[in-house]
Amino acid sequence: MKNYIFAIALLITFLACKQNTKTEEATESVEEVIEETPAVTYPENLTKVFDAHGGMDTWKSMKSLAFTMEKPDGKEVITTNLISREGLVDNPKESIGFDGEKAWFVNKTEGEYNGKMAKYKYNLMFYFYAMPFILGDEGINYADTEPLVFEGVTYPGIQITYNAGVGETPEDRYVLYYNPTTYQMEWLGYTVSFVPGIDKKELHFRRYNNWQKVNGVLLPKTIVGYGFKDDKPTEAKHSTEFTEVQITNTAMPSSTFAKPEKGEFAN
Questions:
Q1: Contacts 24+ apart (CB under 8 A), 46-49
Q2: Looking at residue 111, what is its pLDDT?
Q3: pLDDT at 164 (0 to 100)
Q4: Once rounded to an integer, what is the mean pLDDT over residues 196-223?
Q5: In Å, how far are 58, 63, 64, 203 from 247, measured between CA atoms?
Q6: pLDDT at 162
């Protein structure tokens, strides 16, 4: 009996040691994976642009962004969870959202409504507003490009293209032009691919030269749309002002972005 009990005890001890060994091996394996995961690196000039706007570390510590734009029909409020990219656009004519998986819309008017555009519109102005940090997303390719010369000033450029399958329009191309002295972003050239009848290769332009610091991050106070010709800006056309800007390290509840009962999912 004593030999039997001793054998059982020895077996239990062996199994326990074996399990501990497996746990230690698994832990070491996880640590090795973590150590081998490369950090995201950016071109030196783009890193300097990020730093001029508060730094990528500061941006990545933020969880939500909200801002207001004055439109002809009233105020439009845009709210985004920065990590999940859940989004909500709300104005007197419509509500458009993204719940983390699908885009949805609510038509607040009696007229016809193109719900198919919701999947492009829910993050359209967020994308423009979150410049230059939004250009630090995964799946992006960078290359130096020909500088922009405007009113006697030469602005160096960084071209941004996307890997296949990134976003709704991976064929889009962006060019960030920055101030050669301050490294602050000054211009954005971009193609438009989701609007029928528009040249998908021609660069459109918006100017970023009026900034405001919010919670340590330099964000646009105004963005000015410009006319364009031959991939160059021509004259100022319209200005959009951004107010009630909030960027925080707390995410909004997911219920904020859930489709309401009256809403419809975009096709």
A1: 46/132, 46/135, 46/136, 46/142, 46/158, 46/176, 48/183, 49/132, 49/158, 49/176, 49/178, 49/183, 49/184, 49/185
A2: 86
A3: 60
A4: 89
A5: 11, 8, 6, 30
A6: 82
C-alpha R_g of the chain: 25
Let me know: does 68 contact 77? Beta carbons within 8 Å. Answer: yes
Q: Is 160 helix (H, G, I), strand (E, B) or coil?
A: strand
Alpha-carbon span 231 to 61, nearest angstrom: 35
Gap between the Cα atoms of 178 and 173, Å rounded: 17
Residue 53 tokens read as 């706007």
- For the chain, which residues make up each domain, given as ranges? 1-37, 44-265
CA 193, CA 29: separation in Å to the nearest integer? 44
Query: CB atoms < 10 A from the CB of 139, how many?
Result: 12
The listed CATH number (2.50.20, 2.20.25, 1.10.20, 2.40.50) that belongs to domain 44-265: 2.50.20
User: What secondary structure letter does DSSP report for 38?
Assistant: P
pLDDT tens sequence across 72-88: 889 999 999 999 999 99
Q: At 107, which amino acid appears?
A: N
Please give the pLDDT value at position 152: 95
Q: How far apart are CA 137 and CA 224, in angstroms?
A: 24
